[in-house]
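Appendix B. Raw example, untouched.
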Amino acid sequence: MSFHFNFSNSSDVSIHDDSTSENAPQPRDQSPHIQNPPVFHTLEDLISTLPQNISYNTLSLAQSWNGNPIRICRRELYDVRMQLMAEDEALGIEDNISTKERSKKEKDALLEFVSGNEDVRAGKYEGGLKSWECSIDLVKWLAQREEGPFSLTSNERLSVLELGCGTSLPTLFLYQIALSIKTNAVSRAFRKFDFHLADYNYSVLRLVTLPNLFLSWILHSHPHLLSFPTGDLDVTESLKGSFLSSLRDMAIDLGFVSGCWGLDMLKLLGCERVGKYDLVLGSETIYEPATMPEFTRVLLGSMSPQGRGIVAAKRIYFGVGGSVSDFVKQVKEYKRGDEIARWEVRTANEADKDSGGVGRVILDVLPRSAEALEVHMGDM
């Protein structure tokens, strides 16, 4: 089953169109994601998959953070399409770029998407190549936190997990702040940063997630190479080596997970019994009712006892079935073992509520024990 979200496809950022169709897709009876078990990939595993050249554009937001304008460089979608087509011509379907992604069905789904025909193909491709509007809402919300987005933990360590990361805009924003902190002697409060990014498709991780992280590092360490809003970057072996050594020196760890949400992902992340992440992010991750329970399970299961989850979503996804109200209900009814774990869900921000559209929200999810301790975002 494949479908389109009825969003504008005129650019890399989708804008919601509140039109509906009689042929709108129906929710699936069961999730096909059980066919794609989660796998952890280190930065060293993925670095060799970077292309020799990356075409990029720049997302510039009206907000600033700490007096600095917010600029996020992203790989161009047409550049992804060219790489996919070149790989398809150069290699047979069974040749080994990665056995996780080289099935004909996934390749076809990716090419259909970058050609503008589909947003999602169920169980094959889950939309991660494009930057969806709620991910931008989440970046804006994080930037508006006057007290600083990293004040959720002690000065020892900060662990961030983004589920359904795709182009990973929210993580890119926090990662760029981390790069600035680690090179500013006055602000070296955190000794270690962990950024883990999870997407259903391994191909999304290698085609956009890692290239975008690389571009953010280039913007920080070699800004002259990205001096124009759009352009091309030559990815040399020297730059890749400097990228790896620089992150090691700054104690910034990048990790990647491909595959489906669920208990196996929690086990893979070391969160089977207790969560370890200070901040768990998700945007446009609750559109599908069949996968919402497993997303909820990983979101809540991966949060540390004093951590929190931030979820950006549309209030309802017409033609698919997911909604904020269903997600909030699942969070409040979530059980850990035989006990109902008590969670608080707050509406932290509302976007697009006066435009006549569906409306978008930022949800703040935290344990009630944390709420009782009045754990809020304090000063960095």
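End of appendix B.
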